[in-house]
Design brief:
Distance between the termini: 51 Å
Number of helices: 7
Structural class: alpha/beta
Order of helices and strands: EEEHEEHEHHHEHEHEE
CATH superfamily of the largest domain: P-loop containing nucleotide triphosphate hydrolases
Number of strands: 10
Shape: globular
Number of domains: 2
Length: about 290
């Protein structure tokens, strides 16, 4: 599903972000990717999305290789890989249904199927009653559910998530994590970047990969199975706590860089055509 083979990533200005890391995530597996800020988590996800290419080594994702896939064909991979961001990346001034519908339009779904499929996807993430709500009317947890529904539009085999609960309160975080586990339970692999120790401790059966200064310093898959009744703690071999606090020429974790956009295949419209103009956000008074 995902295979990093001696992958190194260097940026011309900020230097190395990943240093000779190797791991293999198989179909249906759930893994947390953790590390200090600047450890390489976001870079690893961008490489897994083929938004960037490694400086050395090879990334293989769902039959595609960073060494052999042309930039022109990257969109084919994106049909198999969903991406969820910390800051949701929703279309402002549009409804939940329209946001998901746009994702379906972008991937070339037949027009007659777009709205019914969008409604089903919102139902899958528990938001069917909010389909007609404007984005600004939704809570943070609800907005993230819309973002997840959008990521599922292409029926991907793999879901990448970059700190998807980082902007959410505890209740919303629990709901989003329950949703990710439901998605994983039907066979979809999930690779989630997070620095939240409590979140990882709640899910001791997930695999944990820890990065430190661009190196893979811990992989829970290398541990011996826990004794009967004993829970495994996501603790890196280094003894560090997992609470870790063209192409760009800087590491996006050290200096903000453009995140991968919702990818479009050839000849697809750049703007949604959903039948009406967006309604401006309304100010609310006391």
């Amino acid at each position: 599903m995902i295979k990093f083979i001696h992958v190194t990533k260097e940026y011309s200005r900020s230097g190395p972000a990943l240093d000779d890391i190797s791991f293999h995530l198989v179909k249906g597996q759930f893994a947390f990717l953790t590390g200090h800020s600047g450890s390489g988590k976001s870079t690893a996800l961008r490489l897994a999305h083929l938004a960037e290419r490694p400086s050395d080594g090879e990334v293989r994702v769902s039959g595609f290789s960073s060494a052999r896939t042309s930039r022109r064909d990257v969109w084919k991979l994106r049909r198999k890989v969903g991406y969820v961001f910390q800051d949701f990346r929703l279309l402002p001034g549009r409804t939940a249904l329209e946001n998901v519908s746009f994702a379906l339009e972008v991937i070339g779904s037949p027009k007659k199927q777009i709205f019914p499929r969008a409604q089903r996807l919102l139902g899958q993430v528990g938001l069917a009653p909010k389909a007609g709500a404007w984005v600004h009317e939704l809570s943070g947890g609800e907005q993230q559910r819309v973002a997840i529904a959008r990521a599922l539009a292409s029926e991907p085999l793999l879901l990448l998530a970059d700190e998807p609960t980082g902007n959410l309160d505890d209740r919303a975080t629990r709901g989003i994590m329950d949703l990710f586990w439901e998605i994983n339970a039907v066979g979809m692999a999930v690779l989630m970047a997070t620095h939240d120790l409590e979140l990882m401790n709640r899910h001791p059966n997930a695999r944990v990969l820890e990065l430190d200064q661009g190196r893979l310093v811990y992989d829970s898959a290398d541990e011996k199975p826990a004794a009967s009744g004993e829970q495994r703690s996501p603790r890196p071999a280094s003894g560090m706590s997992p609470v870790l606090g063209g192409e760009p020429d800087v590491d996006p974790e050290r200096e903000p860089a453009r995140e991968p956009e919702l990818d479009r295949g050839p000849d697809l419209a750049l703007e949604p055509k959903l039948g009406r103009e967006p309604e401006p956000a309304q100010e609310t008074g006391n």
